[in-house]
Design a protein that fits this description.
Helix content: 55-70%
Distance between the termini: 12 Å
Oligomer: single chain
Shape: globular
Largest sheet: none
Strand content: under 5%
Structural class: mainly alpha
Radius of gyration: 22 Å
Number of strands: 0
Length: about 500
């Protein structure tokens, strides 16, 4: 039993699978495309909302340090992802990496985890996008009927038609091809980055030095009428932590980590990259570095414009400009946030479909979903299926508590990938590695420790739900995946090729 559960798929065989005509994705992406994808998915709700939440509830002006801490944790994982993505340039990201290093059961577990992570992430972002659009419509005097709008905090049962429509439109774009997706993403990312740069440059002239005192608050400020409960933070995490001091920075880091989710999605596009050995490390590390710098700059500016105790928890950037007598920027920021969330939604959906496609190509899910479109060379079947499911999820399902699973799912993937680097270095030292994670085993071990530390800071309820989803995954694997796997059928390896 153990020999079958931990049978590994050779890296060479994974690469050969990408050359099968019916199961091969089109290679069309460059390093610039990958970097744009990374920036497109990382910069989203986090930079426009979480800055105010953690500044007011946890770290004050030291929110910049929280972003640095979260960025360092992500950088450790990114170095591991970069080695794997350049060594095993196959769709599936952490799932494929695990299959090559840890074995079939761990690969299934991480694939099952990623399917949930990307599905909930896409739905959460779609609902957030719908809320921004409805806010802009309200400002223009166009009210969305309650039955067709967002349901969070509403007693009216309805269907969020905007969120569902966004998912379906993006599904169609992904079916039509990666290059089209990359072009649309480039345009939207340019708009989004422009908005962020305007916030930084314009806000820098409105900074007041006294707002940085104290830089690291030792206790929570008490103000009449101040509310420390953010609907969005509870939407994403199911909780609203409120400790301060040095520990507040680390707690804030576990919260703003949500703002960094996405750089790992770049790895799912490895198979569609023209020169993955060179371009995957550049795309992963480049996008993370750019976004960390922007996050730190925005947090420094917004806490300098307005004292952290008075920051809004729902729209801190926009409201900070209003408070300083510049309401025009508020509308500009809201527009940028709404536009920017479209790329976040699309790239998360892209990541999920590629993981699903890779699992079906290996036989762990029905092989029906592993055939690509004869013209567009995209995995159209899983894209359409998952797009419809997520559209319904975003339209009907309140996500207040379930969305907390997005963070724990991502951190779990980071742990598995870091361990996989150590295992593959030992089992396959002969592999050509275009990019090598430096200071092995120190960097992978630090990545595991940092991810586990952030996981510990998540609430117990999240761990329970995560355990339930994993238990369901074990049932599906033993009832279907283990016997339908191509390795189980002997289609790809001989017994001596397994561990």
């Amino acid at each position: 039993m153990s020999s079958t559960l931990f049978r590994t798929k050779k890296v060479e065989q994974s690469i050969l699978d990408t050359e099968e005509p019916e199961h091969a994705l089109k290679k069309s992406l460059s390093a610039l495309d990958l970097t744009v994808f990374g920036v497109g998915v990382i910069i989203g709700t986090g930079i426009f909302v979480l800055t105010g939440t953690v500044a007011k509830n946890n770290a004050g002006p030291a929110t910049a340090l929280a972003f640095v801490a979260a960025g360092v944790a992500c950088a450790l994982a990114a170095l591991c992802y970069a080695e794997f993505a350049s060594t095993v340039p196959v769709a599936g990201s952490a799932y494929t990496f695990s299959y090559a290093s840890l074995g079939e059961l761990p690969a299934w577990i991480i694939g099952w985890d990623l399917v949930l992570e990307f599905a909930l992430g896409t739905a959460v972002v779609a609902v957030g996008w719908s809320g921004y659009i409805q806010s802009l419509m309200d400002n223009a005097g166009w009210a969305m009927p309650a039955a067709l709008g967002s349901r969070e905090g509403s007693d009216v049962f309805g269907f969020d038609i905007l969120a569902a429509a966004l998912v379906l439109v993006l599904t169609g774009i992904l079916v039509l091809g990666m290059k089209l997706s990359a072009r649309i993403t480039s345009i939207v990312v340019a708009i989004k980055v422009t908005v962020v740069l305007v916030v930084i440059i314009a806000g820098a002239f409105l900074i007041k030095g006294e707002n940085y005192d104290p830089f690291i608050p030792k206790e929570q400020p008490v103000e009449a009428g101040a509310s420390l409960d953010s609907p969005l933070i509870q939407l994403m995490f199911g909780w609203a932590p409120s400790n301060f001091g040095v520990m507040g920075i680390f707690t804030a880091a576990s919260v703003v980590f949500f703002a960094f989710i996405g750089f790992d999605v770049v790895a799912t596009a490895a198979e569609e990259t023209r020169n993955p050995q060179r371009d995957m490390p550049r795309g992963i590390l480049g996008s993370l570095l750019i976004c960390t710098a922007l996050y730190v700059a925005v947090s420094i500016v917004v806490t300098g414009m307005q004292h952290y105790s008075r920051l809004s928890v729902d729209a801190p950037l926009a409201d900070a400009f209003k408070a300083t007598g510049h309401p025009w920027y508020a509308g500009f920021i809201s527009f940028g946030a709404a536009v920017g969330l479209t790329t976040v939604c699309m790239i998360l959906l892209l990541g999920q479909t590629r993981v699903f496609f890779a699992m079906s190509r290996d036989g762990l899910l029905p092989r029906f979903f592993s055939r690509v479109h004869p013209r567009f060379k995209t995995p159209h079947r899983p894209t359409i299926l998952l797009g419809v499911v997520i559209a319904v999820l975003a339209g009907f399902t309140p996500l207040t508590e379930l969305a907390a699973l997005v963070n724990i799912g991502t951190l779990f993937a980071f742990v598995v990938v870091a361990i996989g680097v150590l295992v593959l270095r030992r089992t396959r030292p002969d592999l050509h590695r275009a990019f090598r994670t430096p200071w092995v085993p120190v960097i992978p071990i630090l990545s595991v420790c940092a991810s586990l530390w952030l996981m510990i800071n998540l609430p117990a309820e999240t761990w329970v739900r995560f355990g339930i989803w994993m238990a369901a995954g074990f049932v599906v694997y033993f009832l279907y995946g283990r016997t339908h796997s191509r390795l189980a059928k002997g289609e790809e390896t001989r017994p001596e090729q397994t561990l």
